[in-house]
Design goal:
The structure holds two protein chains of two kinds.
Chain A: E1 5-11, H1 18-32, E2 37-42, H2 49-55, E3 60-62, H3 68-82, E4 87-90, H4 102-110, E5 116-120, H5 133-150, E6 162-164, H6 166-174, H7 181-191, E7 196-200, H8 218-234
Parallel strand pairs in A: 1-2, 1-4, 2-3, 5-7
Antiparallel strand pairs in A: 4-6, 5-6
Helix pairs in contact in A: 3-6, 5-7, 5-8, 7-8
Chain B: H1 3-25, H2 31-49, H3 52-61, H4 66-112
Helix pairs in contact in B: 1-2
The chains are: A alpha/beta, B mainly alpha.
């Protein structure tokens, strides 16, 4: 039986990128006889993101109020859970992620080798855009911290290109951190004994628009993430039945 | 305790009592939260009018004067109150997020039909 796969695309003011991203997915589906479904979560954008989606028949959920990245992505997982999807892939609407790698990151889940797969810039030997030096240092520090608190090494802790199994879709639809969701969920899943795998992917620089993380917030971000990871270390976790 | 302080504190506690009652009467606070405020106003009133009831605690804990202890108690109370409010607000935020998500998904489903 073929797996039902959903691409969750959170979008905040992505009018310049969203149509392009969607068209690439459809093109890929047609070329490779795949049927990746798409759901755009429009996080109350103040530009024309919603209009563009509706005009071009892109499936979209318009949040009635801005929730931030965590709340928006969780809406996608809730939708995936309601509709009974087997695999959900988080995919950026800004052109950073390449649709051709989706098959690679869902493969371990299909083959029951992993519950959660992260598209990573720092494993394998693909020469790809790897972010600024400061950002890479930050990622390395969080990665070390994650290793200290969970005992597992994840190289690209902040990657937003991730695929998860049906069980994790259910977990995420029940609880998902509203802030710093990527590193925090990685740590939570490890504490719940899920198997996480990293697969090398290529990432592009944003094609247009501005990233949601401003550079001056980086130190504050680091402190918060490390604190969150510490809290996860002392919390008790059970897998959802 | 100086008389001025007694007057100031007791009138503060009476005002607190009246304000709480007015808010309750207008239905802008549920009864269960008002209990805390009534309790605080009662404690302040007792301390103001019968300072000697607590004077043995003052010296036990090591406060120099009664008024220092009162300020100390108020500080501790306010700290815990703020913490309780932080918890309440965080709970509210979670609920709002849930509502926004569910409404948005429902809206999509309705528009499709």
């Amino acid at each position: 039986m073929k797996n039902k796969i959903l691409l969750i695309i959170p979008a905040y003011n992505e009018e310049e990128n969203i149509l392009n991203t969607y068209n690439k997915i459809i093109e890929y589906n047609n070329k490779n006889k795949e049927n990746f479904d798409v759901i755009v979560i429009n996080d109350c954008s103040c530009d024309k993101t919603s209009e563009i989606c509706h005009m071009n028949n892109i499936p979209v959920i318009d949040l009635v109020h801005n929730l931030g990245i965590g709340g928006a992505v969780q809406t996608g997982y809730k939708y995936a859970y309601m509709k009974g999807y087997d695999i959900a892939v988080q995919f950026d609407g800004d052109g950073q992620h390449d649709i051709n790698y989706v098959k690679d990151i869902i493969a371990p889940i299909k083959n029951n080798e992993a519950d959660f797969v992260i598209g990573s810039r720092f494993v394998g030997d693909i020469d790809t855009f790897k972010s600024s030096f400061a950002r890479r240092m930050g990622i390395r520090i969080i990665s070390c911290f994650l290793k200290m608190t969970t005992g597992h090494k994840i190289y690209d802790v902040t990657s937003g290109f991730r695929a998860c199994s049906k069980q994790i879709i259910k977990d995420f639809s029940i609880s998902y951190p509203s802030e710093y969701p990527e590193p925090v969920t990685n740590a939570e899943l490890l504490r719940k004994d899920y198997v996480i795998k990293e697969i090398p992917v290529e990432m592009n620089e944003r094609t247009a628009g501005v990233s949601s993380i401003g550079s001056w917030k980086n130190v504050y971000y680091m402190i918060n993430v490390c604190l969150s990871l510490l809290v996860i270390r002392i919390r008790r976790y059970k897998k959802c039945p | 305790m100086p008389l001025n302080l007694t007057v100031a504190l007791s009138s503060f506690s009476i005002i607190l009592f009246i304000v709480t009652t007015i808010i309750l009467k207008k239905g802008r606070m549920p009864e269960k939260y008002s209990l805390l405020w009534y309790f605080i106003s009662l404690v302040i009133f007792v301390v103001a009018v019968f300072p000697n009831t607590f004077s043995f605690i003052t010296s036990k804990i090591g406060f120099q004067t009664m008024s220092n202890m009162i300020i100390g108690i108020i500080l501790v109370l306010l700290t815990f109150l703020t913490m309780a409010l932080t918890i309440i607000v965080s709970g509210q935020k979670k609920k709002t997020t849930l509502l926004i998500q569910e409404i948005s998904i429902l809206k999509k489903e309705i528009n499709k039909k």
